[in-house]
Design goal:
Layout (H helix, E strand, L loop, with lengths): L1 H4 L12 H4 L10 E5 L14 H6 L8 H8 L3 E6 L33 H8 L5 E6 L5 H6 L3 E4 L19 E6 L2 H11 L16 E4 L1 H4 L4 H14 L3 E3 L5 H27 L7 H11 L3 H22 L3 E5 L13 H17 L3 E5 L9 E5 L5 H17 L3
Parallel strand pairs: 1-2, 1-3, 6-7, 6-8
Antiparallel strand pairs: 3-5, 4-5, 4-9, 8-10, 9-10
Helix pairs in contact: 7-14, 10-11, 10-12, 10-13
Length: 398
């Protein structure tokens, strides 16, 4: 088990058993959890998926808020996990630290940037994993590795002690082996002051689907998931989110502008060598830094998209959407895959709505997943919504 862990956990905070990592009693009752190397752990440097960043990093003086909360509630910290470089990728492939294994589908990418987080759960080294999600970095690995995951309402989980990527998009979430563990851990992390449970019985939810999101899946997967939806709901309302490329283009500009605001000075001063793809994104961000009108236009467009999606969901709707597209093989990912994936993930990244990922079936023919998007602040309620699909999804065969 420890030899397997070297492909999943960072060398400067290696894997330890759950018994070694448990220090306090609480509702988690020793539940094992790993931590993406974007969050501070006391006494350990935070590497951010980058050797250049790690060179300058000092051991953290205290735990990040999310780590401290899980520890104080009886969680058992088993180590810090490998992640995509600077959290700016969705593949799970890191040129410097390698690609954590996709335990259930070894030939396929695990997804990122919370790649090691998902790998630690899928490999049985932790029951839950702390990850971050800016553009899909919890949702994609959860879907690719046949796991549960949640991107919360933006701002509902503290990011104190976490490295920022793009603050207006950044969230801290959980990847889990089962829905019970996901719900228990997320309920500890969610700020109660911003909880907004919809005043609607679970039996009266307006189920919403945009057919164009399912067109991004292979026909067999799309048909399979839509059959599951019809079995679990009485009626589904078709909606139109418009051209999904609109979400992708706005996301690209908004994210890149914020990344440069956060890290541009460090990049200019250090001029680190970035891996493939990451270097191109930083180059774009640097060029964008002189185009204030483009950035402002994108931010205005984002506000319009948020209003549109919020209006469609209302106070009683749940949008059902694939959390990710087809999972490619390791070392076969191209730019078109990222663009296609962002058509699905950029929706809630831009709008700030909560999203829960649930795996579908036994994964014998490859990973399949479904996800649910609820009103802002409805995270706890949305986890109960996911329960309606959990058992049927696990046992579902088309």
């Amino acid at each position: 088990m420890r030899s397997q862990a070297t492909k999943i956990f960072v060398s400067h905070a290696p894997y330890r058993t759950a018994a070694e990592g448990c220090t306090k009693k609480g509702v988690l009752d020793g539940m094992s959890f790993s931590v993406k190397d974007i969050f501070d752990v006391e006494g350990v440097a935070t590497g951010f998926g980058s050797p250049a960043w790690l060179e300058d990093a000092q051991p953290a003086g205290q735990d990040s808020w999310v780590v401290k909360t899980l520890l104080n509630n009886g969680g058992s910290l088993v180590g810090k996990t490998i992640m995509d470089e600077m959290a700016w990728s969705l593949t799970g492939e890191n040129e410097w630290y390698g690609t954590p294994p996709n335990a259930k589908f070894p030939e396929l990418i695990p997804g990122g940037s919370s790649s090691g987080a998902a790998a630690s759960v899928a490999s049985g080294l932790s029951r839950i994993a702390l990850g971050s999600d800016t553009g899909g970095s919890v949702r994609v690995p959860a879907a690719n590795c046949q796991l549960y995951g949640m991107r919360p309402t933006h701002g509902r989980v503290s990011l104190e002690g976490a490295r920022p990527l793009a603050p207006s998009l950044d969230t801290a979430g959980i990847i889990a082996s089962d829905l019970s563990a996901l719900s228990l851990s997320m309920n500890l992390l969610l700020c109660p002051d911003t909880r907004r449970d919809p005043d609607v019985p679970l039996g009266s939810i307006r189920w919403l689907v945009d057919p164009s999101t399912f067109s991004l899946l292979p026909e067999s997967d799309s048909s399979r998931i839509q059959t599951l939806i019809s079995k679990c709901t009485s009626a589904v309302e078709e909606i139109d989110l418009g051209d999904l490329n609109r979400f992708v283009e706005v996301f690209k500009v908004v994210q890149s502008a914020e990344v440069w605001e956060q890290h541009g000075d460090w990049v200019v001063e250090k001029r680190p060598k970035f891996g493939e793809g990451i270097a191109d994104r930083f180059k774009f961000a640097e060029e964008l830094s002189t185009k204030k009108d483009v950035v402002e236009a994108a931010r205005e467009e984002r506000a319009a998209l948020r209003r549109m999606v919020s209006s469609l969901i209302g106070d009683d709707g749940v949008l059902i959407v694939p959390p990710a597209g087809p999972t490619p093989r390791v070392k076969s990912v191209d730019a078109s895959w990222r663009a296609s994936t962002l058509k699905l993930t950029a929706i809630t990244s831009l709008t700030g709505h909560p999203q829960v990922v649930v795996p579908v079936g036994d994964g014998a023919s490859g990973p399949a997943a479904i996800s649910f998007v609820g009103p802002h602040g409805s995270d706890e309620w949305l986890l109960k919504v996911a329960e309606l699909f959990d058992e049927p999804a696990r046992s579902f065969t088309s």
